[in-house]
Specification:
The complex is a heterodimer of chains A (115) and B (116).
Chain A lengths: L2 E3 L4 E5 L4 E3 L2 E3 L5 E7 L5 E7 L5 E3 L5 E5 L4 E6 L8 E8 L8 E3 L3 E6 L1
Chain B lengths: L3 E4 L2 E4 L5 E7 L5 E8 L3 E10 L2 E4 L7 E3 L5 E6 L8 E8 L11 E2 L3 E5 L1
Parallel strand pairs in B: 2-11
Antiparallel strand pairs in B: 1-3, 3-8, 4-5, 4-9, 5-6, 7-8, 9-10, 9-11
Classes of the chains: A mainly beta (115), B mainly beta (116).
Chain lengths: 115, 116
């Protein structure tokens, strides 16, 4: 079965600095990878996804993610962090197969951007 | 267009009580899902549905039942609540295949359930 790991519980960055939130995955076939963001007391919101094609994926709010097949990673990045980016970020992977069309989420990484 | 809505937002139950959580979506999505979110564990899939009248088990289905009698609604039931079911429950929906399997899910605002 597919799985995803987010090795950092917490990431702290200063406003204006670049940010990276890490994600690694494990699948037996082709991965379909997603990033979601959760603000306090809200449901998850979609940021971006990788299905196929270019390894660099651009998404909402200036975020991007790089798919690296050899390292089985899909790290989320942003060139210049904003205080409003502070939230909980989830990486997710979906693998298609017989009776297996669910999505597996990582445990989440809490991003704090300080002024 | 309300998206995905969940009822109720909060609920406190005593051990052994039953309840039903309601999820509704107005996007004409075929796929609907129920997740639970626990600290340090991310989201875990409880049950999902690929269309009206069909449901399937996810990663953690024990203690829960679901029904999808109408396309726009997906109900999650707890027949005999246990403290281990204290969690935040999220409903989500997505488009149908072939695009749906690659598409993002749209989430509701969540239901915070406490079982004493």
């Amino acid at each position: 079965a597919q799985s995803v790991a987010q090795p950092e519980d917490q990431v702290n960055v200063a406003e204006g600095n670049p940010l990276t939130v890490k994600c690694t995955y494990s699948v037996s076939g082709n991965p379909y990878l997603f990033w979601y963001v959760q603000y306090p007391n809200r449901g998850l919101q979609f940021l971006l996804k990788y299905i196929t094609g270019d390894n660099l994926v651009k998404g909402s709010y200036g975020f991007e993610a790089e798919f690296n097949k050899s390292q089985t990673s899909f790290h989320l990045k942003k060139p210049s962090a904003l205080v409003s980016d502070s939230a909980l970020y989830f990486c997710a992977v979906r693998e298609l197969g017989y009776n297996n069309n669910d999505m597996r989420f990582g445990a989440g990484t809490r991003l704090t951007v300080k002024p | 267009n309300a998206g995905v809505t969940q009822t109720p937002k909060f609920r406190v139950l005593k051990t052994g009580q039953s309840m039903t959580l309601l999820c509704a979506q107005d996007m004409n999505h075929e796929y609907m899902y129920w997740y639970r979110q626990d600290p340090g564990m991310g989201l875990r899939l409880i049950h999902y549905s690929v269309g009206e009248g069909t449901t399937a088990k996810g990663e953690v289905p024990d203690g829960y039942n679901v029904s999808r009698l109408k396309k726009q609604n997906f109900l999650l039931g707890l027949e005999s609540a246990a403290p281990s079911q204290t969690s935040v429950y999220f409903c989500a929906s997505s488009y149908s295949p072939p695009a749906g399997l690659y598409n993002e899910q749209f989430f509701g605002p969540g239901t915070r359930l406490t079982v004493l």
